[in-house]
Amino acid sequence: MFAAICRIQWKASALGVALLATLAFIIPLLTVQQAGFSAGDRRGWDLIVMLSAVETAGTLFPILAVILGLTLSVGAWSADHQAEHVYALTLPVPRWHYVLLRFGAGLLLIAPVVAAVGLGCAVALGSFDLPAGLRSYGGAITLRFALAAAVSYAATFALAAGTKRTTAAVVGVLTAVIVLALVLEAFGVSTAVAEGIMNAIFTRPGPFEVLVGPWSLIGV
Amino acid sequence: MLRAAAVVAALTIVAAAALVGQTPDEQAKLDRLTRRYDDLTARLTNEAEVGVPRVDSVHVGGLWILSDSAESPVLLGAVESFRRLLMQQLGPAPLPLLVGARIAVRFGEAHPGWGHLLTGDTQFIGVQQRRRTSKWLTGQLAQAVDGLLAHRGGASVAAWRGDVHLFHDQGPLLEATHLELLTANAPSADGCRDGSLEACARSLNLIARLPGQSVEANAELRRFVERRLRHRASEPALAPAYSACVDGGDAAACLAFLERAGVQEPTLSTRATGTLLVAVGDVGGPDALARFFADTGAAIVPRLEAAAGMPVDSLLARWRETILAHRPPPTAVPAGMQWFVLGWATVLVALATRSTRWR
Questions:
Q1: At residue B21, does pLDDT exceed 70?
Q2: Number of domains observed in the structure of chain A
Q3: Contact between residue B311 and residue B205 where contact means Cβ atoms under 8 Å apart
Q4: Which of A21, A153, B140, B359 has the fewest CB atoms within 10 Å, i.e. is most exposed?
Q5: Which residues constitute the domain of residue A110?
Q6: What stretch of H or E contains B88?
Q7: What is the DSSP letter of B98?
Q8: How far apart are CA A98 and CA B176, in angstroms?
């Protein structure tokens, strides 16, 4: 059954996964090139500008991880949502088992994109000699990307598993609170609400701490 | 009692207004104010009435700490921690340079003028309610002494532009200097990183760049122009000087290029120069910094040499080694974070299995 579900999800997500894998491979190469590390003449290198460029480009990795999670979770549930979950309800397996199969199939599809990130980092970092004093973080970026994609996928998968009303309620409440806080702050009423929500989400014990970690491919 | 309180309040308001900007007139007013504050302090210290907003003092290493809450546990705790810090860095004997200097600590909602201000020999610290902890105040006292030492350290310290950071957490300070040495857009920093002690001296503002400098420094200057400013070589006003500097190796042309390009040759920050004093303390023994600060008349390099007990080149070599050894740790993904993310993924999947859709 797992193989069948994998096939269905692959059909639903293949285009997105292929596109994202291509992007994942290209981002490290472009990062190195744009920062100027691929320029052969080292006499023109300005490390502080180059490292800053690498750091800026690194923000693309968590964005890609979130898009990947979203794509896979939509792909995981699209067939069931279209068929009103009738097929799923007729299967002779408990619901939790079915959900795990769906989740596992999506998790497998993260692998090609993670591999593309790793390969892209390896090729990009192998294209020049790293100056003394600097470190490359190809492995750390790949691992961080895998974790970020996994947690993003899990979160969007859980949201998509719910009814439209549940999803709308969760997203709506979060958006409303943030918008309200921003409006209040625009009128000079200082609230720590938006900051509190961001902290709750992006710092420990929030789930998305990994998204805001250091994403620089090259550092000190 | 009421009169004393009113005088304190009035003086505080006048002090704040006077301390913010310091034109000569205001400076004179400030001096008068400081004297009156001293008089008031002396008078209130002797009063025994309960409820008087007393201004008491604590004596630490030749330094007077005055406060309107001298018996506050926060202040006493901070003073005790600070006394240990001071002895650790400058030895047990009162440092002549600190004798007569004062730190005035005022509790309560601090007026802006009491933020952190140095006037003459008095450093003012305002302690706001929300910051009322001994740890915070210890840091402020230490920072105040750093300021007093830099202020009273003599003309050579002032000319050196070296900040004093004796009481900072040294690890982050040294790591920040490592980063600075690696990325500073300055020929001297580049040269120092590559091993030139002369460049280290220049990067720490110990010797000035002169047109008739050494061959090594001229080569370094040329490399800097070529490495960092090549993108401006095509500007018509700069092209001849660039060519003469980079292709012809003419140091004067390099300096002319920098001047026309409006590029100042920066040295390392005052934070980095402060780390040299830490190196002096490390190599010169327990009284090294006391020796450094005691001899206010000498130039900076002889003072460093006398305090460290070694030639400045050896000191710079030690400093460079220390800085290069303090490379920040790699930013790996912590194992804890991996388990944490997997834990969250598990929780979220568990939530998905409990979806209301199937109930």
A1: no
A2: 1
A3: no
A4: B359
A5: 2-219
A6: helix B73-90
A7: G
A8: 52
What pLDDT digit, counting tens, does each position of B114-130 carry?
Answer: 445 555 566 777 776 66
Element (H, E) at B335: helix B335-353
Both tokens of A207, joined, read 């789930």
Considering only CB atoms, B357 lies closest to which of A44, A135, A163, namely: A163
The shortest C-alpha distance from A144 to chain B (Å) reads: 7
Residue at B47: amino acid letter: E
Phi/psi for B125 (5° steps) reads -130, 125
Contacts of B168 (CB under 8 A, 6+ apart): B142, B274
DSSP string, B116-175: EEEETTEEEEEE-GGG--HHHHHHHHHHHHHHHHHHHS-HHHHHHT----TTS-HHHHHH
How many whole angstroms separate alpha carbon B291 and alpha carbon B269? 24
Interface pTM (ipTM) of the complex? 0.84
Across the interface, of A85, A140, A163, the residue whose CB is closest to B332 is A140
B23 interfaces chain A, CB cutoff of 8 Å: no
Q: How confident is the model at residue B67 (pLDDT cuts 50, 70, 90)?
A: confident
Nearest CA to A75 among A20, A1, A118, A141?
Answer: A20
* Residue B23 φ/ψ, nearest 5 degrees: -75, 165
Q: Which two tokens stand for residue A203?
A: 């710092």
B230 touches chain A (CB under 8 A): yes
Instruction: Report the greatest alpha carbon distance in chain B.
Output: 86
Q: Are B193 and B224 in contact (CB under 8 A)?
A: no
Question: B268 CA to chain A: closest CA distance, Å?
Answer: 14
**Helix orientation angle between B215-228 and B239-246, rounded to the nearest 10 degrees:** 130
Q: Which of the pair, A200 or B27, is modelled with greater confidence?
A: A200
CB within 8 Å of chain B, chain A residues 136-175: 137, 140, 143-144, 147-148, 150-151, 153-155, 157-158, 161-163, 166
- Show the DSSP H helices in chain A as ranges: 2-35, 47-58, 60-82, 86-90, 95-126, 138-161, 164-186, 193-202
